[in-house]
Write a structure and sequence with these properties.
Elements lengths: L9 E7 L8 E7 L8 E4 L11 E5 L3 E6 L2 E7 L81 H14 E4 L12 H5 L1
Antiparallel strand pairs: 1-2, 2-3, 3-7, 4-5, 5-6
């Protein structure tokens, strides 16, 4: 999901290709107020090209949670009160296929084979639940508890979801910007807060 061009907010699910037989990596990223660089990567525990799976985002004023097949794989909490950026602009859904083979596919070792084009992605059971945005006051009414995602049950993960999150991250996480000392010698503030 992303908002319009310029300073924007964006929530990404990105599938990074790989050689046949190697796991496909799912990268997530959070842009807030035009600032990204919050990548996390994990090797999927299934082949996403073999069957359909559910990829879902929960986005409210408390947290953004990325889910795969109803398991939370990432949480990004709202720490605006501490001076940190948090996605809060209206978002739109954008789907694209792009060539990241210079860095993404097998660490940049395997390039896209354009003779195999056209490339396709297929979707089913697609659904969006959201709040209609008013351009003059984008969040007016969107934080109301009349919306399910703003209810108390969605302010934080429950104990089962926290266990699932910890299990998935422990078993499958391959990169976390919070622990990348080369890029961030001092961990970003949101990494120290959680």
């Amino acid at each position: 999901l992303n908002s319009s061009m310029g300073v924007h907010d964006e929530l990404d699910f990105e599938f990074l290709g790989n050689k046949p037989g190697k796991p496909i990596t799912l990268q997530t990223n959070v842009f807030a107020n035009g600032h990204g660089g919050r990548e996390q990567k994990m090797h999927l525990w299934f082949d996403p090209t073999a069957d359909f799976h559910y990829y879902r985002l929960l986005w409210n004023q408390n947290q953004t949670v990325f889910f795969v097949d109803d398991k939370p794989i990432r949480i990004y909490k709202n720490h605006i009160g501490s001076g940190l950026d948090y996605p809060r602009r209206p978002l739109q859904v954008v789907v694209s296929l792009w060539d990241g083979s210079s860095w993404a596919t097998d660490g940049g070792k395997s390039k896209a084979n354009w003779t195999q084009a056209p490339f396709q992605a297929h979707f089913q059971d697609f659904n969006i639940a959201g709040c209609r945005s008013d351009p003059s006051n984008p969040n007016k009414g969107c934080y109301s508890t009349k919306y399910l995602w703003n209810s108390r049950n969605y302010c934080q993960l429950n104990s089962r979801q926290m266990k699932d999150l910890q299990d998935v991250r422990r078993k499958y996480m391959s990169y976390d910007y919070c622990t990348d000392k080369h890029r961030y010698p001092t961990p970003p503030v949101e990494c120290r807060e959680d």
